[in-house]
Specification:
The strands form two sheets. This protein has a six-stranded parallel beta sheet with strand order 3-2-1-4-5-6. The longest helix has 18 residues. It is globular, with a radius of gyration of 20 Å. The model has no long low-confidence stretch (mean pLDDT 96). With 331 residues, it is of the alpha/beta class. The protein is built from twelve helices and twelve strands. α1 crosses α4 and α5 packs antiparallel against α6. β11 and β12 form a beta hairpin. Bound molecules: manganese (II) ion.
Length: 331
C-alpha cells in the first residue's frame, strides 16, 4: 500500500511498536546528503525511542548540512555504527537501499528486521515492514499520522523536528504536494510547541556569503531552451573554489531558476570534487521530472528529482537538456 490514509497510517503503529518493544537495540537511518525531512524524521524518531526506553543509534552516511545544525538532538547522528547487534533498523525518508550510504549500509543490513517509513514513489521497496504514503508531502507528515493515536508525547523538540521536515519538503507550503491535511498536522505541531521563529531564522535567514556569491555564478552561467520554458545552469569545481562555497550551499538554487516566469522545467548540474556530476531537476505542474532523472539512473518525485552523471559537465548538460526538451513535449 503506498497511498495510505491518515487513519490507515495510524493503524500501522501498533504493529511497528510490537517490533520496537521486542528489539534490544535499534538503528535509525536515512539517506545520503540528508535534508530537513531526513534529519527531522530520524531525530524525532530518536526522541520517541527515548520515551519508549529503547537503546538505539542514529546513523547517517553524511554529516548534517550547516543550516540544520540547530536541530534538537543533532549531536546524536554518527556515521560510525557501534558493534552492538541490532534487532531492528528503521529507515526514514528512503526509497532505495543504495541511498543509505556505504559507511552505514553493513550495519543496516546486519539488523534482523528492516522497517521503512517513507513518502517517495517506491523504487526497490526495501523493508519487512513498509509504512509508506506517497500522498504525504514529507516523511515527517507520515510520522504525525503514525503517532496520531500513539502514546508518544509530541514534545516541543519532536514538534520542531517534524515541522522542519514538513516545511522543507513542501517549500514552506508552496509546492503542490501541500495538502489541507499537511497544514492541519503542521498546525498541531505549532500547538505542541514547535519553534517556528527559530526554524525560519536558522534555515532562511542564515545564508553564508560564499553561497550567495556562488548563486551569482550560477545565474551568470544560466542557459535557456525551448522558448525559455527550460532553464539550466552548471557549476564547476572552480566555481566552488573561487567563491569559497561548498556543495550544500547550492541548496535551493534550482528552485530559483524555476521561479522565472516563463520557466516550467529547471535543472542544475554541479561538478563534485571527484569529477562526478550531480543533477537536480525541478518542474511546475504535471511535468514528470522522474522521466528525465531515470534516463540518468536517478529518481525522485514528479516535481523534484535528482541523478548523477560520469560524463564531463558540458556533455552531461547537453544530454540533460535534450532529455528535458523531449520531456516537455511528451511527459
Ligand atoms: Mn522527504
Amino acid at each position: 500500500m503506498t497511498e495510505a490514509s491518515p487513519e490507515q497510517l495510524a493503524a500501522m503503529w501498533p504493529g511497528l511498536l510490537t517490533e520496537i518493544q521486542a528489539a534490544n537495540h535499534i538503528l535509525l537511518a536515512s539517506h545520503v546528503n540528508p535534508d530537513g525531512d531526513a534529519l527531522g524524521s530520524a531525530l524525532a524518531f530518536s526522541f520517541a525511542l527515548d520515551q519508549l526506553g529503547k537503546s538505539h543509534e542514529v546513523l547517517f552516511h553524511h554529516p548534517a548540512p550547516k543550516y540544520l545544525n540547530f536541530l534538537p538532538g543533532i549531536e546524536r547522528i554518527t556515521n560510525q555504527p557501534s558493534d552492538k547487534p541490532a534487532d531492528l533498523a528503521i529507515l526514514l525518508d528512503l526509497e532505495a537501499m543504495s541511498r543509505v550510504g556505504d559507511t552505514i549500509l553493513p550495519a543496516i543490513e546486519s539488523a534482523k528486521k528492516l522497517a521503512v517509513i517513507d513518502h517517495h514513489q517506491p523504487n526497490e521497496e526495501p523493508g519487512d515492514i513498509r509504512i509508506v504514503s506517497t500522498k504525504s508531502p514529507a516523511t515527517a507528515a507520515v510520522l504525525c499520522d503514525l503517532w496520531r493515536d500513539a502514546s508518544i508525547e509530541i514534545t516541543p523538540d519532536i514538534a520542531t523536528l517534524l515541522l522542519v521536515g514538513i516545511l522543507t519538503d513542501t517549500g514552506n507550503f508552496r509546492y503542490p504536494n501541500t495538502t489541507p491535511h499537511s497544514m492541519h498536522v503542521a498546525a498541531d505541531l505549532l500547538e505542541a510547541g514547535a519553534k517556528l521563529r527559530e526554524i525560519n531564522e536558522a534555515i532562511y535567514l542564515n545564508k553564508p556569503l560564499p553561497a550567495v556569491k556562488l548563486f551569482g555564478k550560477a545565474l551568470s552561467n544560466l542557459r535557456l531552451a525551448a522558448d525559455n520554458q527550460i532553464a539550466y545552469t552548471t557549476l564547476k569545481q572552480s566555481d566552488f573554489t573561487n567563491s569559497g562555497a561548498i556543495e550544500e550551499d547550492t541548496e535551493g538554487f534550482v528552485n530559483e531558476l524555476l521561479a522565472i516566469d516563463t520557466v516550467r522545467l529547471a535543472a542544475i548540474l554541479r561538478e563534485s570534487a571527484s569529477g562526478r556530476i550531480k543533477i537536480s531537476i525541478r518542474s511546475q505542474g504535471p511535468i514528470d521530472t522522474t522521466q528525465i532523472a531515470k534516463q540518468f539512473g536517478g529518481g525522485g518525485h514528479i516535481n523534484a528529482s535528482g541523478a548523477h552523471s560520469d560524463d564531463s559537465i558540458d556533455l552531461a548538460a547537453e544530454k540533460l537538456v535534450a532529455a528535458m526538451i523531449q520531456c516537455l513535449e511528451s511527459c
